[in-house]
Amino acid sequence: MQTQDAISAGYGGDKPSYLTNGSTLKSWLLTKDHKRIAIMYLISVSVFFFMGGIYAAFIRLELLTPASDLLETATYNKVFTQHGILMIFFFLIPAIPAILGNFLLPLMIGAKDLALPRINLLSLYIYWVGGILTLYALMQGGVDTGWTFYTPYSTTFSNSFVMAVGLGIFINGFSSILTGLNFIVTIHTMRAPGMTWFRLPLFVWAHYATSLVMILGTPVVAITVLLLAIERVTRVGIFDPAIGGDPILFQHLFWFYSHPAVYIMILPGMGVISEVISNFSRKKIFGYEFIAFSSIAIAVFGFLVWGHHMFVSGQSIYAGLVFSFLTMVVAVPSAIKVFNWTATMYKGSISYDTPMLYAIGFLGLFLVGGLTGLFLGSVGLTVHLTDTYFVVAHFHYVMVGGQVIAYLAGIHYWWPKMTGRMYSEFWGKISAMLVFVGFNLTFFPQFILGYQGMPRRYAAYPEEFQVLNIFSTAGASVLGVGLTLPVIYFTHSIIAGKRAGDNPWMLPGLEWRTASPPPTENFEEMPVVTWEAYEFGEENGLDIESARKASGPSVPVQA
Amino acid sequence: MQNSSWIPFFPEQASTFAWQVDLLYFYLIAVSVAFAIPIVAAIFFFIVKYREVEKFATPEEIHGSMVLETVWSIIPFIISMTIFIGGAIVYFNQYTMPKDAMEIYVVGKQWMWKAQHSTGQREINELHVPVGRKIKLTMTTEDVLHDFSIPAFRTKADVVPGRYTYLWFEATKPGRYHLYCAEYCGLNHSGMVGWINVMEQRDFDNWLAGNTSSQTPVEMGKDLFENKLGCASCHAGGANQRGAKLEGIFGKEVKLVGGGSTIVNDDYLRNSILNPAAQVVEGFQPIMPTFKGQVTEEQLNALVAYIKSLTPNAAATTGAPAAPAPMGN
Questions:
Q1: In order of start, what are the domains of chain B with their CATH numbers?
Q2: Is A313 in Cβ contact with B160 (below 8 Å)?
Q3: Model pTM score
Q4: CB within 10 Å: which end of chain A, N or C, has fewer?
């Protein structure tokens, strides 16, 4: 403990940390502290993640055999729908912004809190109301429309709780909008002296781009849900062709939001990866401006490609060509990021800590996800591939291989800051490897299934698809173990983990220049930034000599 | 490229554009591998070669390189454009309807596919077609979205309520191929499957002969037009009729009341029956009652087929032979 105290001597002070500053339920529920709100998000989002995961387990078990036997078809349809809804709206969209973004954004820019702390708490409450309403609808009988809610099935034919779930998503959307608004205002107005735009960590740039998409895109899905409700209640024909509406209009509105929403899900993950790769290579990020602006480019172009979800929906072939072209253009900034991340490691000092293992896994999986996106953007090929398991595999590579892995990298990276405790490196590494192997075993066979023509959302399938489905289910069980392990060792670390110290990896970011866990007001005194982002030398105020002495003999970190 | 049956887990190639889609697929795999291998190799090389040897070291800074950034922006852009162009060419082949195709009507409903040949034969969840002939499907649905998907032909198209969508293919070898509904349509979506039976022309002729049907779509449409729905009372074609003369109208451009014009095609005819007041031809009053709810999708198809048959060269305009197609040799 002596050495640990030495490391933390710099910032600790006598102030209570945000965790110990009040222990009543009221002190949590009425807090304006972004860090406490982030922790409450962490717990709620994790609950939704594991519920979505249980649905996923049932999907994989059902698909072990060709016939619809474990679940009735009606149940299966509800299970995959609810898996999608919980994972997308209640896990993927809020996970990184609402947990890591909330916790870290003010710390990274040297602010005491977000610009609008009460609005931040309101976002959380809106998320709870939307989430509880959705869960209530699922308990009452659930919904079977697919997460895409295509009309006229969702408006006229489905006898499930469409409107209740729609209302839950509608309400939840305001949580996203307010969070995005809060981030933008915070980044503009709350930066510490010396923290210029181009000294911002790339995590902050990524959240800025994400916030733009949140506040511009989310209102469209709210409008769409409102139009659905108007049609159901007043029978004014909007989407239903039987009363003069147009079902394709719904798809346009839905994807006008839901495609940019993909970038709400992946951009913050890219921000995390930029941080982890740079910090665990102890190298300034390669091409800082290119990574920063590619995030903005993705956010802007992301609004122009919604029609690539509708190549076979009956839209004109010329529209199809335009959307295919724009989809190819949006691939370029993602490629730029991958090249820059790889180049960052060149001549670095790379450690194999758990966050870095996850980040390297991300690079591989995101590469596959991105390249298969080209397959689906190439319109002649996607006529064959769309609505098959190829698409399922592709978006899981981007959403799980990308966002979930990035989220795990981020949670492992900032866990010591959030809790002041270390987790087991050994089990962290085991989990990172199980997730990587399990994930590939689950989803790679689905590319092949998709090219063979296996359609999505099938409770039963022809026998020739069984072998690859067995691989997929086997992989899912490995993935399940890999994702459950962190719950165990994180819980253990809170109770008995060794103290992390303020800056266990001697990193230069502002979040590492305060106590772990930080005090409620984040910094003892207002920090003044005199260094660029990602500068690792002692001249930037890092006491590397004494940290080295304290951490013992210098050897490559081993499990 | 024409035969890929040696590749495990690879779908059969059974249409004229299957090989084009597969070629595009292999090109993309080649591009992906060419991209992924250097990147993965570089990552592994770096994490081994530049692994941490001293804790908290401060390696020399490298800020970036404008040259590299330019190179790795432009090269992916050029490659992505080749992928775009390749995809666009194949897409054009898939979705440009041929002029000389044999036409079949398809109606989707939860959870079955109903087809009717222009010679009158009806099928459910099966479709018999001759090999080596262009087949055009004119499709709609009675209820929700469906999608007519034939992986062995590498093509599919959504089927949308309230309008027609089209799909064409030319099968290259006889066999039985999976037909799937690929757009989620509710409870028994995964049961909305069937078979495409591709037959030699002679076998197909025999099949047609063995499945004598009561009426062709044109005959059925004529019966509806003249007797059952009474369309003829206004549209019979005399000089002072209240309704537009329909002979020779198909494929023509007509002026509309309130300005503008439209081409008379399948969708226009269909909408004019269901929602007659929406686009009235100049010189006529919006007095026609709607037939929405009174005609089934199959009856609508028949009416459209009959009205098309009143224009002798309608087949040349749309590629859809309205009268029974010649049976070939």
A1: 18-95 (1.10.287), 102-210 (2.60.40.420), 217-318 (1.10.760.10)
A2: yes
A3: 0.90
A4: N
